[in-house]
Amino acid sequence: MSLEASCVWPVTRDIVLAIDTHLGPPVDSYINGAQTWFTDEPDLGGITLEWRLHPVAGFEPVAGLAADDRWDFVVTAAADPNVDLDALPIGEATRALSSLWDGLECFVAYGEECEPAPLTQVVTERLGITPAASGLVDHDAIADQWERTHGALSVTDMLLAQLGSLDN
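and the corresponding structure tokens:
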């Protein structure tokens, strides 16, 4: 088992807006619902961090909206405090923000060593919001479970379960 430092936030309007403000548009938007960003962190010795917005369990693509357009649509809606994020008119349907993503995770992108405490400090400073949980996780076990169930389990829930049950 290989454990890696990770930080996790639940998805909220504030997280969406903080991501947009501090990370910009995603570098990748996947059909499975995930969005990713990468940042190089001089305060962590120049290591690259991956920021991944995890889709909800059983994610269903938004009909009538390309995966590459999903983020921009949601950010535009989230920027308007009058928009109800539980009833977004998106694509050909009305969807809740909570039907798209359930958590943001940040971890070291390329397997470099990093302890949870300095990672937590750097990502809190970068995003401006303290993670809900941080510590060490087994990404391989989570990926195996997610793939075995064809995405029917929440990656965010599995991360939070590990963070709550491991000696971090």
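(Above: one complete record from the training split.) The chain has one domain: 4-165.
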